[in-house]
């Protein structure tokens, strides 16, 4: 850094962007770290069954596996389409 | 009681071998009989960093296969008679290591040594797995850079679930962060992740920061662990790390940009 640098318009460094990206990524990877390996397959098959009866999109289902000291919880969330669109 | 330290990172090129050589030398210089093992079978380099590449006769795989005794394979360091190096095999591949064989060699070393430093290869395959499997302490070497931080976090997950201590429900491996190739000037300019940023993400106990330093290349060029370059910033940083690991309370250095006003003004390095 020399004298000239002091007259340059200081631009925001990229480190804050790196930190933000890492925090999101690491949180995501940690949450999926202890998940059983059958989870993606389970999600896929559940979606197939549901789509037999209801017309839902590919991303309408989310499967979450959580673990604490006493129990393991499998949380399945399915977003149904609007009532108006239901019978199409 | 002997302690097994793994120097690990996931990512390659962050300074695992440099760190293994430096801390093994540091522990030995403090009076503890120390062995340092190269787990990078097929790509050995610890011998080169320690300056004993021409004295390798037998290696880790020979000992595992009982083709040589441990004493035949261990190389006594030329600078410190409490330090021994167990080189990796250069002609075999990582499949030559077996969990049972590595365990047997470590058990034998534990009878005679205070510290056993395991220099892990990059990646998360067999060599890296066996380097960390029997560890009591893990030194996670990380650069302030996105891919290195991510890989370190992945490694932490593996330490917590795939190690012997995890499998046998013992007290978990003690994990320490070593931040290497740190450039305080670039952190100040907002161009590089800071120590605090990395700690926020990894939540690890910080053992020390090694600044980006010319002395690291100088030392590896001459085959002398950088910790023996006592005048250099990196050498002092590693000496601090060894002292902190052994329980001394030393304030962190090399984190802030200490360049004076004039050097900044005239852009000198």
Task: Please state the overall shape of chain B, judged from the principal axes of the Cα atoms.
Answer: globular
In angstroms, what is the radius of gyration of chain B? 18 Å
Low-confidence stretches of chain A: none
Radius of gyration of chain A over alpha carbons? 22 Å
Walk me through the structure.
The complex is a heterodimer of chains A (88) and B (269). With 88 residues, chain A is of the alpha+beta class. Chain A is built from 2 helices and 2 strands. In chain A, strand 1 (61-67) and strand 2 form a beta hairpin. The radius of gyration of chain A is 22 Å and the shape is flat. In chain B, strand 3 (75-76) and strand 4 form a beta hairpin. In chain B, helix 1 crosses helix 12 (233-245). Chain B is built from 13 helices and 8 strands. Chain B has an 8-stranded mixed beta sheet, with helices on both faces. Chain B is α/β, with parallel strands linked by helices. Classes of the chains: A alpha+beta (88), B alpha/beta (269).
Summarize the structure.
Chain A has 88 residues and is of the alpha+beta class. In chain A, 36% of the residues lie in helices and 16% in strands.
SSE map:
The complex is a heterodimer of chains A (88) and B (269).
Chain A lengths: L14 H17 L7 H15 L7 E7 L4 E7 L10
Antiparallel strand pairs in A: 1-2
Chain B lengths: L2 E6 L7 H14 L4 E5 L7 H5 L9 H5 L5 H4 L1 E2 L6 E4 L12 H14 L2 E5 L6 H8 L3 E6 L3 H17 L1 H4 L6 E9 L1 H5 L6 H8 L2 E7 L2 H9 L10 H13 L15 H6 L3
Parallel strand pairs in B: 1-5, 1-6, 2-4, 2-5, 6-7, 7-8
Antiparallel strand pairs in B: 3-4
Helix pairs in contact in B: 1-12
């Amino acid at each position: 850094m020399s004298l000239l640098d002091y007259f340059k318009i200081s631009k925001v460094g990229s480190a804050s962007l790196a930190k933000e990206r890492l925090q999101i990524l690491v949180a995501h990877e940690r949450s999926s770290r202890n998940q059983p390996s059958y989870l993606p397959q389970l999600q896929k098959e559940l979606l197939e069954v549901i789509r037999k009866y209801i017309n839902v999109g590919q991303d309408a289902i989310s499967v979450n596996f959580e673990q604490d000291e006493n129990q393991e919880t499998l949380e399945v969330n399915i977003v149904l389409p609007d009532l108006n669109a239901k019978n199409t | 009681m002997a302690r097994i330290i793994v120097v690990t990172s996931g990512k390659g090129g962050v300074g695992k071998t440099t760190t293994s050589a430096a801390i093994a030398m540091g522990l030995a210089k403090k009076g503890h009989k120390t062995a340092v093992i190269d787990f990078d079978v097929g790509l050995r380099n610890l011998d080169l960093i320690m300056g004993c590449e021409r004295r390798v006769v037998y290696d880790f795989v020979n000992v595992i296969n009982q083709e040589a005794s441990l004493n035949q394979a261990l190389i006594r360091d030329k600078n410190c008679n409490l330090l021994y190096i167990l080189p990796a095999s250069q002609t075999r591949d990582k499949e030559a290591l077996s969990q049972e064989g590595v365990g047997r060699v470590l058990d034998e070393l534990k009878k005679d040594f205070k510290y056993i430093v395991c220099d892990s290869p990059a990646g998360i395959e067999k060599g890296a797995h066996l380097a960390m499997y029997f560890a009591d302490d893990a030194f996670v070497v990380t650069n302030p850079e996105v891919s290195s931080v991510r890989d370190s976090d992945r490694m932490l997950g593996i330490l917590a679930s795939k190690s012997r201590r995890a499998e046998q429900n013992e007290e978990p491996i003690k994990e320490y962060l070593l931040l290497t190739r740190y450039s305080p000037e670039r952190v100040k300019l907002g161009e590089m992740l800071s120590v605090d940023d990395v700690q926020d993400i990894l939540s690890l106990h910080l053992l020390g920061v090694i600044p980006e330093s010319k002395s690291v290349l100088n030392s590896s060029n001459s085959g002398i662990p950088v910790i023996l370059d006592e005048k250099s910033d990196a050498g002092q940083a590693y000496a601090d790390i060894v002292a902190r690991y052994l329980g001394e309370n030393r304030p962190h250095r090399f984190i802030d940009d200490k360049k004076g006003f004039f050097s900044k003004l005239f852009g000198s390095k």
